[in-house]
């Protein structure tokens, strides 16, 4: 694989002058008002911001294009704005994305970024090319860690640290697009699809995930169609309903088991919202989508746990009424998980059992394994948040080589 290790350049903090290391310690700098970070603002929020500084609403669309389509973070370069406005913006606002700690490309073309967010936590973002490079799917994180503790997920083992802000969520798309190159035209986007399948449970960070997804869809933002933005959830039922009231992006459900006893073990939130409640929520969600839509059912295959014929048969019966496609994900092992990946033959047998029952299930091939970018490995080797040092960056590099 090829590896590019970026300089450790954490994003400057609000009110601090990035070019002057001692500025923050002066009394004047301490008293400096916080600048508004425009990166995570939805169109409505940005319009309100411009009105609040005595400018016209239409400036929002101009700024959004600069930020999200050109990947700019420099007001001075925004040549269709007057000089006084550019100077005013530099005083009161900023465009501050996450700092890039590490960037690597796997031998299969998968690219991964380790990003440092506000409090020094790390999140990871992965860009997966497919269909001869025509599709480039970005896997985006929504939280640092996760509170739901699914038994086969390394993010769950890490515990919950905090929700990402809207700027930190859309900042992942922004960083990936800037690295790959600015969008030239709609047919040639650096990022063609987004899946909220990175670290965290997106529906437990609804208030930040929804504005970030709106920016993904906005014509002045990333302009992706709602079918190309997918939210994956382990089944936070009331929030599925709430999502359906706000937007109709594609929905993926992390099912992994077709009976409550087994799902309680694998996906503990099932004890609160069981399979029946979850499938009912899926039907309600689809009823709100104006077009013909299917739910994606994610099923992580774990050796001798949920990969037997009886499990495939139960799954087929369970999903009979739901317009859906099934995506089988062979378990990605991590240290001390206690689980194993099924053999390739067993995976194919499971796929065949579903096929015999009338389902055309796809098997998700594991991508980016050599840079720890595969599903469930997103925590990778980036665990120790307290040692944000050259030594740490070096260890990431060694793991990636
Ligand atoms: N929290 C959300 C989204 C992030 S997880 C959810 O659970 O849906 C994204 C997908 O990766 C989920 O389907 C999850 O079950 C799967 N996954 C997690 N750990 C895995 C592992 N070790 N091997 C294979 N898939 C895994
Ligand atoms: Fe959280 Fe999803 Fe991992 Fe479960 S699978 S612990 S919900 S990130």
UniProtKB/TrEMBL annotation:
[4Fe-4S] cluster binds at residues 146, 150, 153. Residues 14-31 have a biased composition (Low complexity). It comes from Halovibrio variabilis. Binds 1 [4Fe-4S] cluster. The cluster is coordinated with 3 cysteines and an exchangeable S-adenosyl-L-methionine. It catalyses: adenosine(2503) in 23S rRNA + 2 reduced [2Fe-2S]-[ferredoxin] + 2 S-adenosyl-L-methionine = 2-methyladenosine(2503) in 23S rRNA + 5'-deoxyadenosine + L-methionine + 2 oxidized [2Fe-2S]-[ferredoxin] + S-adenosyl-L-homocysteine; adenosine(37) in tRNA + 2 reduced [2Fe-2S]-[ferredoxin] + 2 S-adenosyl-L-methionine = 2-methyladenosine(37) in tRNA + 5'-deoxyadenosine + L-methionine + 2 oxidized [2Fe-2S]-[ferredoxin] + S-adenosyl-L-homocysteine. Its cofactor is [4Fe-4S] cluster. The gene is rlmN. Its main location: cytoplasm. InterPro entries: Aldolase_TIM, Methyltransferase_A, RlmN_N, RNA_MTrfase_RlmN, rRNA_lsu_MTrfase_RlmN/Cfr, rSAM, rSAM_sf. This is Dual-specificity RNA methyltransferase RlmN. It comes from the Bacteria. Pfam families: Radical_SAM, RlmN_N. Specifically methylates position 2 of adenine 2503 in 23S rRNA and position 2 of adenine 37 in tRNAs. m2A2503 modification seems to play a crucial role in the proofreading step occurring at the peptidyl transferase center and thus would serve to optimize ribosomal fidelity. S-adenosyl-L-methionine binds at residues 200-201, 232, 254-256, 332. PANTHER family: 23S RRNA METHYLTRANSFERASE, RADICAL SAM CORE DOMAIN-CONTAINING PROTEIN.
